[in-house]
């Protein structure tokens, strides 16, 4: 049985969540709390496997309660938000910064056409998060980890190389938001290629997620529209409910094709399009997450000559996606987030400004030889 603590200040909503969670025979709701203070007391007393956390509560809100719980009794936390406006999204992602694993919109009411789907998603997420081992967050830590500057040549092995990079594609799932935030926050403002991101996230939160990333990044972050050209130094986050791809003319393609690996947007869809359109001129990065989405396609990118990076096990909340990519030989390098940042900066710093294959081919100007960060080389070369 999965022992769940429900934290929600509204009695009506609390009973609604209890009804949904208790409908699954593998879930045992072992306690409830109406405030952040009650949640702190309850988690130490009953030691639940998972906590569902409200955002709005009197006195101690969901963000502060999450932060305190992760400092004292680390427990998988799923933030359940009643509405998806920018203010709630900001609070939800502050809880993610503090250590929460996932954010969901509250299931729709009984009788609503989407009730069954959203209720099933809550139950599924709670069960999946119960399998995650979380770590203690130290008090008063900075909400965004800014990686220290490092000399690529002195701190890592280097070699002279010519590598023209035109685009970076990143996929992530469980545990991905804070890793993405930290990587983007550490990229320089003159980062000269576009970055495309597929992050598995609950419907309704993509715009808030992009806004949250933008607050700590010197690069513009946006939700793209179909047909939009990708620009150097811009970050594009896949919208809700549609696949994101990039075509040979360096334009965003959005479509409602069938889900892949049960997901839409899917990392696999993005990586496959990048392998086809960019070949050797791309970097693929697969971060923490459950399942196998993107793993085979990361290997495809590698086979097409791209540089491919998988997050290492020690730094991953869940090593499913990157672990599968490593297992099937899809990762050129296996790195923690701080080294992923250095790898991206090192590879891209040898570029001229490019927008994609069309611009790169139009420029009759080879990049200068430079120092290529190698990290842990799994290619055998």
Notes on the structure:
This protein is an alpha/beta fold and 381 residues long. It has two domains: 2-129, 3-Layer(aba) Sandwich (Rossmann fold), CATH 3.40.50.2300; 152-371, Rossmann fold (3-Layer(aba) Sandwich), CATH 3.40.50. Helix content is 36%, strand content 18%. It is built from 13 helices and 16 strands. The chain has helices at 11-22, 36-46, 62-72, 86-98, 115-129, 152-155, 176-186, 206-216, 267-278, 295-303, 320-327, 337-349, 357-362, and strands at residues 2-7, 27-33, 50-53, 77-81, 102-105, 160-161, 167-172, 195-199, 221-222, 235-237, 243-246, 252-255, 282-286, 307-311, 333-335, 370-371. The chain has a seven-stranded parallel beta sheet with strand order 9-10-8-7-13-14-15, sandwiched between helices. A five-stranded parallel beta sheet has the order 2-1-3-4-5, with helices on both faces. A hairpin with a 5-residue loop joins strand 11 (243-246) and strand 12. Mean pLDDT is 84; it is low at 140-162 and 352-381.
The count of domains is 2
* Helix proportion range: 25-40%
Biggest sheet character: 7 strands, parallel
Radius of gyration: 21 Å
Instruction: Give the uncertain stretches in residue-range form.
Output: 140-162, 352-381
User: Quaternary arrangement of the chains shown?
Assistant: single chain
- Our estimate of the beta-strand percent is 15-25%
Strands of the biggest beta sheet: in what spatial order?
A: 9-10-8-7-13-14-15
Helix count from the secondary structure assignment: 13
CATH class label of the largest domain? Alpha Beta
Strands, total number: 16
Structural class: alpha/beta
For CATH, the homologous superfamily of the largest domain is named as Methylesterase CheB, C-terminal domain
Q: Roughly how many Å apart are the termini?
A: 48 Å
For this structure, the CATH topology of the largest domain is Rossmann fold
């Amino acid at each position: 049985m999965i022992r769940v603590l429900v934290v929600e200040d509204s009695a009506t909503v609390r009973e609604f969540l209890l009804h949904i969670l208790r409908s699954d025979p593998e879930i045992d709701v072992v306690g409830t709390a109406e405030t952040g203070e009650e949640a702190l007391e309850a988690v130490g007393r009953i030691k639940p496997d998972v906590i569902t956390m409200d955002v709005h509560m009197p006195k101690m809100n969901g963000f502060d309660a999450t932060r305190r719980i992760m400092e004292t009794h680390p427990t998988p936390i799923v933030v359940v938000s009643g509405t998806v406006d920018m203010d709630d999204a900001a609070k939800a992602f502050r809880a993610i910064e503090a250590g929460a694993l996932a954010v969901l919109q509250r299931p729709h009411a009984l009788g609503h056409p989407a009730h069954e789907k959203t209720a099933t998603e809550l139950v599924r997420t709670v069960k999946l998060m119960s399998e995650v081992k979380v770590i203690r967050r130290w008090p008063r830590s900075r909400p965004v980890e800014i990686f220290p500057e490092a000399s690529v040549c002195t701190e890592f092995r280097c070699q002279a190389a010519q590598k023209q990079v035109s685009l970076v594609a990143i996929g992530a799932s469980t545990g991905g938001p804070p890793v993405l935030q930290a990587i983007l926050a550490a990229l320089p403002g003159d980062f000269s290629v576009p970055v495309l991101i597929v992050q598995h996230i609950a419907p309704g939160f993509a715009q808030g997620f992009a806004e949250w990333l933008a607050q700590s990044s010197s690069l513009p972050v946006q939700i793209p529209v179909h047909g939009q050209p990708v620009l150097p130094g811009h970050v594009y986050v896949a919208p809700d409910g549609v696949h994101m791809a990039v075509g040979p003319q360096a334009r965003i393609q959005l479509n409602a094709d069938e889900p892949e690996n049960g997901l839409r947007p899917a990392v696999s869809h993005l990586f496959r399009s990048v392998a086809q359109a960019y070949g050797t001129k791309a970097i693929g990065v697969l971060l923490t997450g459950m399942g196998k989405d993107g793993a085979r396609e990361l290997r495809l990118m590698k086979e097409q000559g791209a540089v491919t990076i998988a997050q290492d096990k020690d730094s991953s909340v869940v090593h499913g996606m990157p672990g599968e990519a490593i297992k099937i030989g899809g990762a050129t390098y296996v790195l923690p987030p701080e080294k992923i940042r250095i790898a991206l900066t090192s590879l891209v710093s040898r570029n001229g400004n490019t927008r994609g294959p069309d611009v790169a081919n139009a420029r009759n100007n080879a990049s200068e030889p430079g120092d290529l960060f190698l990290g842990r080389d799994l290619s055998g070369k």
